[in-house]
Amino acid sequence: QTADSVAQAPATTKKWFESFAIRGYMQARYNRLLETNPDLSCEQCDRSWGNNGGFSLRRVRLILYGQLHERAYFYLQHDFASAPSGSTTVNFGQLRDAYLDLGLDKVNRFRLRIGQSKVPYGFENMQSSQNRLPLDRNDALNSALSNERDLGVMFYWAPTAVRQRFSRLVKDGLKGSGDYGVLGVGVFNGQTSNRPELNNERHVVARLSYPLVVGQQIIEPALQAYSGQYAVAKDQLSAGVKHRPDMNYLDQRVAATFVLYPQPFGVQAEYNAGRGPEFNPQTDSIETQPLHGGYVMLNYRLQYQQQQFYPFLRLQYYDGGKKHERDARSYTVREAELGVEWQPFSSFELVTMYTLSSRRFEDFQRPSNRQRGGLLRLQAQVNF
Amino acid sequence: QTADSVAQAPATTKKWFESFAIRGYMQARYNRLLETNPDLSCEQCDRSWGNNGGFSLRRVRLILYGQLHERAYFYLQHDFASAPSGSTTVNFGQLRDAYLDLGLDKVNRFRLRIGQSKVPYGFENMQSSQNRLPLDRNDALNSALSNERDLGVMFYWAPTAVRQRFSRLVKDGLKGSGDYGVLGVGVFNGQTSNRPELNNERHVVARLSYPLVVGQQIIEPALQAYSGQYAVAKDQLSAGVKHRPDMNYLDQRVAATFVLYPQPFGVQAEYNAGRGPEFNPQTDSIETQPLHGGYVMLNYRLQYQQQQFYPFLRLQYYDGGKKHERDARSYTVREAELGVEWQPFSSFELVTMYTLSSRRFEDFQRPSNRQRGGLLRLQAQVNF
Amino acid sequence: QTADSVAQAPATTKKWFESFAIRGYMQARYNRLLETNPDLSCEQCDRSWGNNGGFSLRRVRLILYGQLHERAYFYLQHDFASAPSGSTTVNFGQLRDAYLDLGLDKVNRFRLRIGQSKVPYGFENMQSSQNRLPLDRNDALNSALSNERDLGVMFYWAPTAVRQRFSRLVKDGLKGSGDYGVLGVGVFNGQTSNRPELNNERHVVARLSYPLVVGQQIIEPALQAYSGQYAVAKDQLSAGVKHRPDMNYLDQRVAATFVLYPQPFGVQAEYNAGRGPEFNPQTDSIETQPLHGGYVMLNYRLQYQQQQFYPFLRLQYYDGGKKHERDARSYTVREAELGVEWQPFSSFELVTMYTLSSRRFEDFQRPSNRQRGGLLRLQAQVNF
């Protein structure tokens, strides 16, 4: 803090607004049209699904980022559609990303990423919600990491040509993931984003991903895995549920990814399997259990003058727990989604999507709970 | 999220700082001078009134806004003087506005406003606190909407000439409301800003307002009304208070507005009547009850060199409930305020105001509570 | 709020990004290397010390500031590594500074500072965490003010030449405190930053500080004192702890400071004594008790090409209470820290520090608690 009003000459000749940039986006939603079952809901997807839901803000993001030095890049993202645990009022500002990329070489092929950032596990997890076609991420891989992020240190490597390709896949409207390296390895707390560490074990993660040019097309296969001990937090336990005395559970997964970028026809498929905490309604206890599931998405890119249309179909399946929800809630999910994203111009997008879903989600308070139904979902997005 | 440090060429030739702007304002207050009754207070007005109050920040606002495309305008406002429910620490960042204006025609006479924004009900509610003369809004119309806002979709229409007039009324220091259309109609959740929807009914609102040039003067009469079901939230109930089983209460109001803009003498008057939830101390229960009240304000604009002075006198009355307070607290308010706003230069304003007040505010915990008294109130405001 | 999309001509010819500036910094930490005692911790210093700690963000700061008019300067700082009381999720945005400097003369030798800002008590308290060498402030003087700030009105005076010297001491990498005047006097709530006032007494503070040029060296001796009534808050009391009926405790301190700026060898020493609330394990009660303590730090500035190195050694002692912690927790602290700050370039800093500590910290729940140990601490900081 330089708490004074005497004019300060800047250290460099760059003005402040040239040394970094600000951008953001907002998503407003309505999920209640053509709804057949108000008890069908999905906590991690969107809290405004189902009974007593209404208009909602799903994301209100503000991002500061910049290349401060040939070896230093920073990225700071807030969300203003978050709420502290226990608060009945919402829309408080909370961190998403806060990291520094330190280049180990001058052109940043080798980078150390320090701070809170996305854990390199899953293509759809890496891809920004600003670019994703379906309104919510798939349950199978997203259940690995609440808000996709954690605190730690990551190492990324990618050749310069591949870094430029990663960048172009976003810029050209091909819905890329951004640059999380060809190789990514890291160590992180393991309690997921914005939650303090609760044990003395760190998680480790590794990912290998390569965007290949095959004729006119680009495909990107990837493999990734993580492992650690997850500590179930006291405030997510129902009174009476049984659990391990130290509340620590094995938490490990491996996933495979295949992406064919939409030029104009695209395919995106991911699958993961592993073990983690899951509520067992038979024993009223949280136990380490196997989990598995994935999705396949077909999409198409249609350009009409300045406008973009992206029709898509996604089928997904998940059987396992969600470690960060009440009692490590137990899930079986079968879901089909058919929708279209329309961009009349670059600062506005409208997604219309029909969801047909069968979801079993059970915890100590609702030990037998399977819901089926359909609903139409709408989202308006502004990019600035 | 484009999580990479490879330089990205901007999609347009506009720099980020040319495509939108940032501005804000802050208000610091002190309310304890010449205070005659420390038990006189007003929760919705200003929590630092009365006993154990001290210096306070009433508003710390940060706004991002811009015309992103000929048909797309966005507005994003945070307040950093807010607190989550249940927290004893304060000054957290919370959303106020987050909306997109979609122009249905190229010059935006017809606009759809999507997201969280002010509900078009009442001139003083629409007018920014940055411009208002009295420190707090009147109880009669402000009790309709905590923080004046809600989540939904609004439609606004105004001819271009009127839009420019709305704009000029703010810019020229005449304390206008901004452009909420000649006609505004909308649908919104109904639980007021930053509170999730709690029932399956949406509120509807309509407003008609027209700024007329009459000789050298501009007057703006308006009519507005809204209707819906308000769900009293569990966390605002005292243990023991009686209420409807489903906690839903009819919530509807109609209001009339008259404004004569201060060139140099101004008049502002509003009145509303309706029905809503209100605590009844006779029955210890929350009941749907009639409500009514309004205010009249006289003001004057005095320019001396670069300085502006706005002396004002406001008289207000309200009899009814405040749906968003504890047990839908019951009020009878009679208040007179005499003050002056002084702007020595455009980035600084000082308001000095004497308040003489009689307030009955009763809930299950304080079923008989009428307070009278006077106090001097001070506010320093910086605009950036 | 000027809620419209009709283009507004700016009041001045300055663009928004020329009228104020945005900057910030982030600190990521890891404290678990070479740790000998996991029960050694320090709540006010860094919550990620010790058992179950992991990677953490200590500060994520965003600052807007600018000279808006020859007599008006504003400073608005948020931290995105804060959490509301009672929340188990973290990293919410919370205010640090929100103030306006009003120049009483045209060159701002005499200034009124209105709003939330640092209370002028202690050099290390005034110095920004962005510039400080040891990772945390010393217990002795920092225990006076949680987050160093409070809400109120301060008066500062300094001659123009001294204001420029204060500014240069920061800009030239000499780790100055910024400009809190040669003379500072003020009145403030007394409950420390982001906590509402809880009694009807304000605190008062005064400080005298002068940066003297002595040959090639600059020294800065200072004296400061404050006095007031601190109200222990209900939510910081353990069930069963005894306390004064009105919960108000005398809170007063006086401190002396000596700084020799590192050209290249530097010395920094501060000491304070006073009285305040402190838990007494013998009587299970919170009592007004004497407190005293201070520190001495030796440092050295080494420049190698563009790089800066600042090795430092700090020894500190504190015996007294921490009024803003549980039951006004009782402390005896003896600590030695040896470390180095490395700045390879201006936007990045790495601090490596070894801490050897003996800390007694006792409250009603842990009435006998003395911990000794050592640990290695790491911090990466990015400045933007």
Structure overview:
- Three copies of one chain form a homotrimer.
- Chain A is built from four helices and 18 strands.
- Chain A has a single domain, classed as Porin.
- A 16-stranded antiparallel barrel of chain A has the order 1-2-3-4-5-6-7-8-10-11-12-13-15-16-17-18.
- Chain A is mostly beta strands.
- In chain A, strand 15 (307-321) and strand 16 (330-345) form a beta hairpin.
- Helices cover 6% and strands 54% of the residues of chain A.
- The first copy, chain A, is globular and about 60 Å long.
- Chains in contact: A-B, A-C, B-C.
- At the A-C interface, helix 1, strand 2, strand 3, strand 4 and strand 5 of A face strand 1, strand 2, strand 3, strand 4 and strand 5 of C.
Q: Can you lay out the helices and strands and say which pair or pack?
A:
Three copies of one chain form a homotrimer.
Chain A: H1 16-19, E1 21-33, E2 56-69, E3 72-82, E4 92-103, E5 110-118, H2 123-126, H3 139-142, E6 149-157, H4 160-171, E7 183-188, E8 203-209, E9 212-214, E10 217-231, E11 248-260, E12 265-280, E13 285-300, E14 302-304, E15 307-321, E16 330-345, E17 348-362, E18 370-383
Antiparallel strand pairs in A: 1-2, 1-18, 2-3, 3-4, 4-5, 5-6, 6-7, 7-8, 8-10, 9-10, 10-11, 11-12, 12-13, 13-15, 14-15, 15-16, 16-17, 17-18
